[in-house]
Amino acid sequence: MSRKGRRRNLLVRASCVALVVAIGVPVLLVLPWRWLEPPNSAFMMQSQADGTQFDQQWVPWESISTHLPLAVVAAEDQKFPEHRGFDTESIRSALEEGGSKGRGASTITQQVVKNLYLWPGRSWTRKGLEAYFTLFVEALWPKRRILEVYLNVAEFGPGVFGAEAAAQSFFGKPASMLSEREAALLAAVLPSPKRMSARKPSPYVEERAEWILRQMWQLGGPSYLEAM
What is the side-by-side strand order in the sheet with 160-161? Predict the structure, then answer.
């Protein structure tokens, strides 16, 4: 075989290996959590590395008040049941405005990816990985599972991760007993859980919680998520 032919074969083999790695690694990292409880998240590990003790107790979907997933969707990603991981309209708006403060155009699926696998920040590398893993999460998990994982790994206060720890820490009750208003308060602090408090809400958090409650009613209540 000529040198040119050997070079071409090497290139083909390298491309095949790269393709297997590019698909196989994300599948191995994503697929198990469709059924299993993730042992921790990148943000929990970061909290621990910073010397902050964290509290997190996994609870299944059935043990979370129906008000909380609706409040989170109303606050963070109202098109969650419909999109495939990306809210293109919000992305376009954010780009036109030169980037927005807070969550911007991130969907709940993207937030799950960031919490589980990535690190805080806005670098293009992190954004690229976030987008890539989002495709796999949307392809391999049903919508309800994505939201269930999010509700168990999202940070609701300094070192307080997940719905159960938040409900117990801030309201002295299990996540299954959260009221509409309590769910709205928890959703209201998600953009900045280290600065905002659901236990002692500021006027801004109270106002945001009231807006979230109105959005929950306009979406049609918990039935909005029943089709997932």
Answer: 55-56, 160-161, 155-157
Strand partners, 157: 160
User: Cα separation of 172 and 37, whole Å?
Assistant: 24
Residue count of the chain, please give it.
Answer: 228
Parallel/antiparallel/unpaired status of strands 155-157 and 55-56: unpaired
> For the chain, which residues make up each domain, given as ranges?
1-36, 37-225
Q: What confidence tens digit (pLDDT) does each residue in 109-126 have?
A: 999 999 999 987 778 899
How many angstroms separate the CA atoms of 55 and 47, rounded? 10
The predicted-structure confidence for 128-156, as pLDDT tens digits, reads as follows 999 999 999 999 999 999 999 999 999 99
The pTM (predicted TM-score) of the whole model is 0.89
What are the tens digits of pLDDT across the range 38-63?
988 988 988 877 777 888 999 999 99
How far is CA 226 from each of CA 45, 81, 128, 143, 223, rounded to the nearest angstrom?
A: 33, 10, 32, 11, 5
Q: What angle, rounded to 10 degrees, do the helices at 163-171 and 180-188 form?
A: 110
Q: Answer whether 65's CB lies under 8 Å from 175's CB.
A: yes
- Give CATH for domain 37-225: 1.10.3810.10
Please give the structure tokens belonging to residue 179.
């009221």
User: How far is 116 from 9, CA to CA, in rounded Å?
Assistant: 38
Residue found by looking up tokens 């609706």 in the block:
70
> Which neighbouring-strand residues pair with 56?
161
